[in-house]
Amino acid sequence: MSYTKPLPRIDTLNQPFWAAARDGKFLLQHCPACGDTRFPPGPVCPKCLAGDQDWVESSGKGTLESWVEMHRAYWDGFKDNLPYRVCLVRLEEGPLIVSNLIDTTENVRMGAPVKVMFDAVTEDVTLPKFTLV
Amino acid sequence: MYDLNDLKNKIAVIGVGNTKYGNFPELDDYGLAAHAFRNAVNDCGIDKNKIDGMLVSRIPYYARMGEVLGINPRWTITLPGHGRMSGMGIIEAANAIATGQCDYAALMYANIGRSRRVNYGGDESPGTWDPWGFTSPGAAHAMMFRRHMELYGTTTRQLAEVSVAIRYHAGLNPDAVMRNPISIEDHESARFITAPLRLLDYCLINDGAVCLILTSKERARDFKKPPVLISGFGAQDTYSPSSIANFDLDFWYPAVRAAGKQAYEMAGVTHKDVDGLMCYDNFSPTVLFSLEGLGFCGQGESGHFVEDGALRLGGKLPVNTDGGHLSNSYMQGWALNVEAVRQLRGECGARQIPDCEVVQYVQSTPCTRSIIYTRG
């Protein structure tokens, strides 16, 4: 069955992230000059404007800052998954990212520890998602 | 160079106009804007050929707009269709008039989202997080409100007070789109769109247009109605994180505080002087965030503040007396500024705030703006 959900637009800037995700790694763009880390990546460091940015691997651990349950499918591909959970995670390394919370338990609280897992949705794309620790 | 505070009470709104609000597939953006423009021109009695400044938002092509209205301004500016542009546009126009770039500015906004079946999510504007199914401004506000619940114990019944009070006002406004009264129970049993937010936490999507005409205080005396003065304004943007659109982890609290402080100081008033608040209500939680940022209550205390009908006419602080975006019309802040003018003129009939002297507009968004209006 073909995958009907929206896929990331892979470009030269974010290509290393998506390549690493296929290997089960969550990369963060990193500034060798000032140490800032972030996702999504940018063309320059927003702190010090250095141009040459590299990548570091995140531990994949973080805490839950918030979450929602989507009850409407803005994309048809999500119709069969309603309702599904989207979470806001503060990674150990600092960046704030959006992903899916796999767990369906009612017992969810802000500040809960979460960790990354990898969902290979197509041959080319693996989406990092999160689960309660 | 002049000090921004020198602009206090120097610029006036002389004319306001709007279309009817609803579903008008027979009109296009220009048609809607032209009707609002004509109403604003008639409202103040200006010769439209005197208008030498034009600002358009969510209108495709400024030059066609000029052609449609038969005007050739010497100051033109186009802003995108984002809701946050109303506060920005009014401040831009005030500065253009103050610096002599134009004498009479017409500001127009048209939205035909109802007829065009706009969803505000999904493939209309895919962003970084769509692969995870995170899309739409409403979802971003749900994410913030969930956090507010967790941090401060705010409840959805308290949130309901916002929608219920604003719908009550719509019931007093014969032109509002949604006028049937609703209760807290109606809010609590409405279907989820993005939990914890339900249908009645979301603004309308309707067609319509708004126009405001601004000039200097001196010139304002020549027109039909008493001028309403722009007494103060303030601004603060928050661009990180912008990949998570329409979102701020701190509910834009620092930005609203900064913009509010600037506006109050410029106008020489405090929040205690405000007779009515016109508050950007794309989603009901935004009202809570605005109340906290402006200092009507402490941070985290807005849930308690809004209880027992505090936002209704006759309550502690009347908010969005026209019915706001939630129940009157989704004119992305523009109609709220029109309502501020009408309240200060005393034109609001059943929904009139008694002895109304100071009305504040606020948009708590990535481009936070606040404007304080007083009677001229």
The oligomerization state is: heterodimer
Largest interface, with Cβ-Cβ < 8 Å? A-B, 33 and 34 residues
Please give the alpha-carbon distance between the first and last residues of chain A.
31 Å
Proportion of helical residues of chain A: under 10%
Q: Counting H and I runs of at least 4 residues, what is the number of helices of chain A? A: 1
Main sheet properties of chain B: 9 strands, mixed
Widest sheet, order of strands of chain B: 3-2-4-7-1-8-11-10-9
Reading off the top of the CATH hierarchy, the class of chain B is best stated as Alpha Beta
Q: How far is the first residue's CA from the last residue's CA of chain B?
A: 26 Å
Radius of gyration of chain A: 16 Å
Biggest sheet details of chain A = 5 strands, antiparallel
Mean pLDDT of chain B: 96
Order of helices and strands of chain B: EHEHEHEHHHEEEHEHEHHHHEE
Category by helix and strand content of chain A: mainly beta
Strand percentage of chain B lies at 15-25%
Taking pLDDT < 50 over at least 5 consecutive residues as the criterion, the unreliable ranges of chain B are none
Query: How is the largest sheet of chain A built, in terms of strand order?
Result: 6-5-4-7-8
Overall spatial form of chain A: globular
Number of β-strand runs of chain B = 11
List the helices and strands and how they pair.
The complex is a heterodimer of chains A (133) and B (376).
Chain A: H1 15-22, E1 27-30, E2 37-38, E3 54-57, E4 61-70, E5 84-91, E6 96-100, E7 113-120, E8 126-132
Antiparallel strand pairs in A: 1-2, 1-3, 4-5, 4-7, 5-6, 7-8
Chain B: E1 11-18, H1 29-44, E2 53-57, H2 62-69, E3 75-79, H3 85-98, E4 105-112, H4 137-152, H5 156-171, H6 184-189, E5 192-195, E6 197-198, E7 207-216, H7 217-220, E8 228-237, H8 253-267, E9 276-279, H9 284-294, H10 302-305, H11 324-328, H12 334-345, E10 358-363, E11 367-375
Helix pairs in contact in B: 1-2, 5-9, 8-9
